[in-house]
Every structure is written in C-alpha cells, then in structure tokens.
Amino acid sequence: MAQEYEVIIGMEVHAQLLTRSKMFCSCSADYVDAPPNTHVCPVCMALPGALPVINKAAVEATIRTGLALNCRIASFSVFARKNYFYPDLPKGYQISQYELPLTTDGWVEIEDDAGHPKRVRIRRAHLEEDTGKLVHMDGYSLVDLNRAGVPLLEIVTEADLRSADEAYRYLRKLRTILRYLGVSTADMEKGAMRCEANLSVRPKGQKTLGTKVEIKNLNSFKAVRDAIAYEVQRQVRILEEGGTIEQVTLGWDASRGRTFVQRTKEEAHDYRYFPEPDLLPLEVSQEWVEALRETLPELPDAKMDRFVREYGLSRKEAWIVVEEQDVAQWYEAAVRAYGAPRQVYNWLTGEIFRYLNEANVPIDEIRVTPEGLAELLRLVDDGTINRNTAKSVLQEMLATGKDARTIVEEQGLAQVSDEAALASIVEEILAAHPDEVRRYRAGKKGLFGWFVGQVMRATRGKANPDLVRKLLQERLNE
Amino acid sequence: MDELYRLTAHEARDLLRKGEISATELTQAVLDRIHAVEDKVKAYITLTPEIALAQAAEADKAFVQARKEGRAHTLPDLLGIPLAVKDVISTAGIRTTCASRILENYIPPYDATAVQRLRAQGAVILGKTNTDEFAMGWSTENSAFGPSHNPWDLTRVPGGSSGGNAAALAADETIIAIGSDTGGSVRQPAGFCNLVALRPTYGRVSRFGLVAFASSLDQIGPMTKDVTDAALVYEAIAGHDPRDSTSVDRPVGEVRRALGQEVRGLRVGVPREYFGEGIDPRVADVVRQALRVLEDLGARLEEISLPLTRHSIPVYYIIAPAEASANLARYDGVRYGYRAEAATLWEQYKRTRGRGFGPEVKRRIILGTYALSAGYYDAYYLRAQKVRTLIRQEYETAFRRVDVIAGPVAPVVPWPIGWAMENPVQVYLTDLLTISQAIAGVPALAVPAGFSDGLPVGLQLVGRPFDEETLFRLAYAYEQATQWGKKRPVIE
Ligand SMILES: [Zn+2]
Asked: Domains in chain B, start-ordered, CATH in brackets?
C-alpha cells in the first residue's frame, strides 16, 4: 500500500488596522487613494531625529482582537526593532514586537476536514508597522511612503493546520472575526490582509517534523489554498522519489500555479531584534482590558450558536448568515419584523443572496430593508399575492427600491380571490377546450395542471391558486 | 559698550531689558567676533548671519514695545540672545550635517523640540557647530569638516563631541549653546574649555529632533559661560514633550531659585575610583582643590566607592554602538542625504554608506551590528543591559548616603590634535568619568575648577535623578566662591 503523508501547517497573517492615524505618527492611515508621498511626516519618512509615539487606538484594536482570539493580554509588553535594509523601509528597521508581545496563547475554532470542530492555537498577536510601497519603473523604482507606518496586526498560529482546506477555513474565520471587531477590512485583494504559510510534510506516523518551508505573498484565499495544495503535492513527489526537501522561502506564482524559490537558507536574514529604545514598554492594566472587553460585539461563534438555538437553523445554515456581520444583522432584523425564522432564512439565502451575487453588492447596499421583506411576506400570508408573484415583486423591490404594496398596487398584481369572477373564467376555459375536458374525464388526469396553468395565464398569474384548484376540481369532476 | 560678545546671557538680558543695548548690536558684535577668530577656532559648520540678524530685529521690536508698556521684565530670558546649536540637532531650514558627508546637504523641514522652545523665547540662532560625526567621539577630530580648536591652546582639541560649542563659547563666538551628551559630550568639552554644561536626567529634555546616536543614552543639555546661564537655558528646554515617549512628565520648576541658596550641610560623596588609576595626577590635584572649596562652603565631604564605574566603558561600548547600528540604518541614500549611484540596489547601499560615513562611525556600526547578531546577543547586549541595571543600582545606593557625587569631568587635560588618532584605544578610556552617569540616567554638571599648566580642568557634580536643582545650587555656590569661569583665553 502506498505511503500516506501528513502536512503540518502554520499561518502568519498581517492585517492592517483601521485606525485614523498611523502606528507611530499622526499622519492619516487612509492611504489607498492618496497621491504618492502625501501622507508622510518626519516620523514616517524617518528623517534624522524623528521619534515614534505609540498609537493608542492601535493598541486597543490589538487588545480587542486578542480577547476575541481567546488570547492572554500581557500587562507588560515591549516593542523591538527588526533590522534589515530595503528602500520601502525608511528607518532601516521595522518597529515590531519580538520577545514579550502584547497578546499570546489563544485559539480559533474551525471545522476540520471531517466536519468536526477543531481549535487552531494562536501563538501570538502583536503590533507592528507596515512598510512603504515600491513602484517599479523601467530600470528604476519609485518609493511611496504613504503606507509606511500604517499599523499592522501580526497573528501567528501554532502549526495546527493539516490541509490546504483547513488553512483556507482558518483564514475565512479569522477574517470574519476581524470584521466583526471592526478592526480591519481584512480585504486580501486590497492588501489589507496578507498571509504567509509555513509547512512541512512527513510520512504518516513519523514523529519528527519534516523540513519546513515558508510560502510568502499569498494575496487571496484562493492563492492560499492553491499554493499549499501545490506545495504539498510537490513535496510528496520529492519524498516518494527519495529526495530531500530544502529549507527555503517560496513565493507563489498564481498565473502559472506554482511556487518558486525566493530565498535559500544561506540567504536568510539575521534581523538582530533588540528592544526599541525610543519607546517605553507598554503597560496594560487589568481595568483597561476589562473596559475593552465590554466593547466586544457578539462574536461569530456565539452568534452561530444562538441562531441554532433561537431560530432552529443547523450550524451550517447559521454560519451562512453569520459569516458576514451585516447579513446576520439583516437576517435578525427581518426575523424581528416578520417572525418565522425559517421562512426568512429561505428568502434571504435564496432570492436575496442570488441578487447579491449577480449584482455583486454587499447587503447593506441593497434597496430592500428587512422590514420591506416582512411586508412582502405578509402580503403572501393574507392572500393578496401568491408566492410566485412575491418573487417577482421582490425583484422589482431590489431593482427600484419601491415597497411591496406600492408595486402590487401599481401593477395590479393583487391576487384574484373573488370566487364568482374566477368561476366564470374557469367556465370560459372549459368551454374553449372541450377536447381536453373530454380527455380529462376519460381518465387523463395529468391534464389537471394544464387547466390550472390556463386559468393562471388568463389572470396573468394573479389567481389564488388554491381557489383555482378547488373550482376546477368541482367542475371537472362533476 | 565694547566687547558685547563677552557677556553672559543673563547680563545681556538685563541690558536688553533696560534698553542699554539692542539685540541687533549684540548679535552683530558676536558675528563680528566670529569673523575675527573663527578662522583659528573653526567652531562652526554652518553660519546663519541673515537668520540671526532677522531674529535679532524681531527681538528688538518686542523689547521696544514691551519697554513702552513697562513690561520688559516679563519678556523671556533668552529673547535676543545669540545661540549656537550643535549640528546634530534638527533646525528647520538650516542645514543639519551631523558633521558627516552623508548629510552634508541635508536641510531639515522641522525644528527639534529644544530648538523650537528656544526659538519661542526669541533666542537668535547664529549657526550650527562642529561635532564628531554623529556625536561619535571625544574631540571633534572625527568631524568630516575637520577639527575645531581649543581657544585655550589652538594646537589642542576642545573636547567632544560637542567641541564646536565649547570652542565657540570659550572664544566668545556665541553667548549660549545647546549640545548633546551620550557619554560625556557636553561635560567633557565644557571641562576642556573652562565652561559650564549640564547633562540633564535622562527624559528631562525632549530628544525629538536630536539626531539619534544611542537613543537610551542621548540627552540634550545646555553649554554656557556660567551657571546662571545654564539654569536659564535648562529651564527653557526641559519638560515633557508628547513627541518623545521617553521624555518624562514631571515638573521642572524654576531651578534659578536654587542659585544663591545655602549649601551648608550638603553631603558630597567623593568616589575613590574617580581619583584612581588612569587619572592624570595634575587633574586630580586641581579637583581636590575644588573639593576643599566645597568643604569651606559647608558641604560635608564623604569618601565613597563606586566599583562598577570601571565596567561602564565596556557596557557603553556595547549598548551605544548597538543602538547606533540601527539608528544610522536610515542613511541609505534613498530619501535624503548623500547617494552614490550604482547599478544595483545593494551596490548603491554599500557605496553610499561606505563613502558617506567616516571611519569611527563605521567602526561603531560594525561593533553594534556584531553585538546584536544571532548567537552574540545574549553574551553582549543582554549582559550589558544587566550590568547597566547594576550600575544604576550602585548610584541609587550611593545617593542614599550623599546628595551629590563630585569628581573630575575628564581624567586628562585637552590633548594635542592628532593624539586620538594615534592612540585609538587609550582615547576610549578618556570617557571613564562621564559614561556611568549616562548609563545610569542621572544628571551631571560640569563647572570650571581651575587650570593645570594653563589648560582648563572641570569639576563634575552628579545628582539624583530629577534633582538638577541641587547641582545648580552647589555649582553656583562654587562658581561664586572661585570665579574660574570668568577667565578668558587669549586667542592668537
Ligand atoms: Zn507620518
């Protein structure tokens, strides 16, 4: 039997924090659309003599994240200088944390590949500063320091992940948590969340770890999954052929779908970390931590459990509405306005999700309010419109922003429930189709649906289908 | 009135307030003096006479207006007073070179907090003074612009690294100055040039805008012709600055009130080690004389021992270069300063830094990089930090017994220009008496103590953290009793 292999993965995520100013100066951290080198000052340009001052909001965002990741918050933590030369790093060192980070020893719950809950341990979540950006031109490069000094949260797991899919689910979960906290957009495509994986492969059953490689610059969820899957395959092939894995730092070429060597072990940096003498150690009181704990929202896991409990959803179903906080909020508001959580769930994850996908808009930008959906559903309940009409009314609501009642009135969509009026229509249809009536009566009962369709067509879909069925039954079975 | 350039700041202030002289006259007198002697002294790297005269004219307007309204006595002490700024302190619009080729043409867009505070008082900036490159040295011999000369003997060094300030003050090429002290850099040149200088408690004066050499050791301090001026400048620049996280939020008070107060009963510790091995006996003699004066003033001398002092040199030469190796990484030719173009990025880095930095700076960057390297960090940097804690504790213990510790500023008198280059190891030892205070973060003041063979010798007074006041009180009493500082060199 072929040897089976096991992959051991740890993740390192950098998330930009949504603070108003940068990590160590008062420049605006909102750099994305700013012209190059306009959000800069002596501090973030590293002019001689400039000194950093810690951004309190960034510290608070980190503590809140640490709490949400079940971490210990250190009462005493230290910033450190990480030394290396690169033109996007103006000081020649990055202010980060090394020994004594702000938060340590937490966990995030995900589902493993068998669908069982699994805890991924968080080794540390600490604060540091982002670098600037290089724009490569023909034969030279330009430096833009707008991003230099934007606060970054670095979140490092233990090597607890066992597959590319687990890594993917961990990242999705982490993104959800960061967004719930409002500390980061965690938007990978925009570079607000960046990811590195370190992984090693070993034959199943082997106790010692295989050689670890690092994959950098994973800029999308897809890249994470693909790069890890690719790398596992590559390493397994090498091991099967009796080869050895080299300890390297890899990049991911998404267009070719393969990893490539960025740095060998010999080229590895010695960052010469040492405590940042320009900053005092960060002291965090228990009272401060508790005050911040009070500001935490209901976190995704807790919300999922509650939705299961209160709304009768399965865990999987609950996660579908919980993963995005705005969706969860929308759902709860609609349930509050209408009741019937199951029905609301079906409409939300059916019609409305389809629209979100097609129009590619977030839920807080659609033109239907939770109360609007509730009104629509009540129109179905009281027989004003039928379910099919309701679907097209909802499309109209999404497109125009008009409320359900207005659309029903303007387009005369109210269901015909007048028995006398429907009876005369039924008479007309039967009179117009004597052949079909005969065949039906001769036993071709399958034609019943066809008769219903004819009546609906004649009423442009407005007929109350239950009533139509009742009248047809009466007349055809005479 | 002639020889206005010889005035102290407080003398000039009184005359300015009365309207007996104008700030313009005073500034012009100092500029003329610079014109007359600077060729021999070479105190300045950059002179800013236009800026100085414009600021002086502004000051004169303020004096005229205030006198009219009868409130001249409420004007800031340093309004209209000529000031020299060591060229490692950032001055908006004025070239700040750090005496290095790598910043030869760098003009900062912002003022250091200390400069901002002095400008706010209306002090008149004459220019930027010479220093050892990035303040790394003892004599200004490491300046990319050549050494300054000691006005007491032009063949000798004025000390360093704030040697340009000391030379300028001793030659009356400025009235007041601010320098920086990382391991003795304001005190030692003050001692070498018969001047007063204070290294404040670490955290007392904002380092914002002081080009970093060793962040945990650097402090800006006043350099002046007498103790009163040092107090005025200190009051102007000290105090919390939110832009420097290591600056301490603690009231400075008016230390000038301590001037003239009784010193009787002050306990003065005299460390055995400050007079031991490596101390020139002629220096020791002069300082012992000074201690006798303190005793005559009523201070109670007490012999103490600070055995860890001798470890302060190795500790300093690990911590300071380690921090410097990171602090100087920003000089990469990318954003400002000197750049040597090359085909590749790494070649450009190497050439820029290879040509931009002088030998002493390179030596310290290499030392510091080594001390922080993987595998050596624990043995060097971490161990040095531990010894640093012990040195700090040694001072704490001593200050339970005594109020002030007194001794020489430097173990030697100013050496002939060129000696340091030929004695690279010995010169490191001349820091012996000024380093431990920086390591412990305690304040220390240098005051003229007399002469040995015509060369100045300084008395150093060391105080408890944040007790600059006692240093001023004792130094003032000593100064009034001796008047050594009144002596001026003849420049020829
Ligand atoms: Zn900035």
From this structure: 4-273+280-306+396-486 (3.90.1300.10)
